[in-house]
Amino acid sequence: MMHIQYEHLLIFGGVCVATWFVFIYFWPRLLLSAYKRALLVKGFGDGPIPVNTLYTEPQKLFAEPLTAQSTAGTNLMTTGVNHDTLATAGWLDLSQGPLVLHVPEMNGRYYSVQFTDPSKNTSFAYVGTRATGTQAGDYLISGPGWKGTVPQGMKQKSSPNNSVLVIGRVLVYSDSDLSTAYDLSKQIQLTPLRQWQPG
Fold first, then answer.
1. Range list of β-strands (E), the chain
2. Is 69 a member of any domain?
3. Does residue 78 sit within a domain?
4. Which of 112, 118, 124, 135 is least enclosed by beta carbons within 10 angstroms?
5. How many domains is the chain built from?
6. DSSP state, 84?
7. Under DSSP, is residue 53 helix (H, G, I), strand (E, B) or coil?
8. Is 31 within a domain?
9. Residue 71: enclosing H or E segment and its boundaries?
């Protein structure tokens, strides 16, 4: 009788351990899936953000995060924790071909654009102050297996997945600097390689 009870405990313990490992494995993917839906449907609270488009949080949301959040409902990104950088976000689909990321001259201002593989929740590339400097530039974002030619003077960032989560941030020095930082953030843009022209 005691032997049967131990068998049941071992089976129960095994099921608990297996369930825990499955939860740990799939939880990041579930979160990113929810994040993708929120990004593409709600954006920053004022409507959907199309695939292969970068969108910067509104100046009002940055300047008055509590007021803006209460009027816009649940927003994709909150600014209360990190209230010195403007956020830019987008979801890429590279299955139709590479995209060109353009960043403007930042004149020494801190900024970063982070590229994340949502299947593994790992960042595979950065463009920004610490990684590439603050000068203007164009970067080719390509999917797995892409064999085309990288335009002259352009650096390639190869993604291990056709789906890519992009999070960008631009430093805001002060309240009076918000408009300048916002204008710079809006100049961080994506263009399909087939439509891209130098300059």
1. 55-56, 85-93, 99-103, 111-117, 122-128, 137-142, 155-158, 163-171, 189-192
2. yes
3. yes
4. 135
5. 1
6. T
7. coil
8. no
9. helix 65-72
